[in-house]
């Protein structure tokens, strides 16, 4: 098993090879700039005992790649979508209210009843306005529970 800590080569758990500057076996050529930062060179070899723990990977954002913060920011600024509940002749009103409360986060009994009534009388009702991804998820959940639903962009138009 071989491990290295910037210039020192560990040949076995109890033996450390510490080359001098300019030595052909040195791992760092010239001045070593990462003193104190363990770097795994190889974890192969035979022998008993614990192996070499891998160095944790610290993800850095590269140009053209979004960080988790940027994804959250873009989600907040993405165009809103409406989730629409359509009236049907199959489901009882009480069931529609129960599904709305189960599927839509924060849905109160009063709001669910109002949405159900509006869809019953007008043919459709806006359930929630949210991001496109959330709207698609809510729509699929409503459909999965036997309700008719769709989504549409909320910006502009009637």
Automatic annotation (TrEMBL):
Keywords: Hydrolase, Protease. It holds the Pfam family ClpS. The keyword Protease applies. One of its GO terms (biological process) is proteolysis. One of its GO terms (molecular function) is peptidase activity. InterPro entries: ClpS (IPR022935), ClpS_core (IPR003769), Ribosomal_bL12_C/ClpS-like (IPR014719). Coiled coil: none annotated. Residues 77-144 form the Adaptor protein ClpS core domain. HAMAP family: ClpS. PANTHER family: ATP-DEPENDENT CLP PROTEASE ADAPTER PROTEIN CLPS1, CHLOROPLASTIC. This is ATP-dependent Clp protease adapter protein CLPS1, chloroplastic. The gene is LOC107429492.
């Amino acid at each position: 098993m071989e491990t290295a800590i910037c210039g020192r080569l560990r040949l076995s758990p109890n033996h450390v090879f510490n080359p001098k500057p300019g030595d052909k076996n040195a791992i760092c050529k010239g001045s070593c700039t990462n003193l104190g930062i363990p770097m795994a060179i190889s974890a192969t070899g035979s022998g008993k005992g614990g192996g070499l723990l891998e160095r944790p990977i610290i993800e850095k954002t590269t140009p053209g790649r979004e960080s988790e913060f940027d994804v959250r920011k873009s989600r907040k600024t993405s165009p809103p979508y409406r989730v629409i509940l359509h009236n049907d002749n199959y489901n009882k009103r009480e069931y529609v209210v129960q599904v709305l409360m189960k599927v839509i986060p924060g849905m109160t009994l009063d709001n669910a009843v109002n949405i159900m009534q509006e869809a019953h009388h007008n043919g459709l009702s806006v359930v929630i306005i949210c991001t496109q991804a959330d709207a698609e998820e809510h729509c699929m959940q409503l459909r999965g529970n036997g309700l008719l639903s769709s989504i549409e962009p909320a910006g502009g138009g009637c």
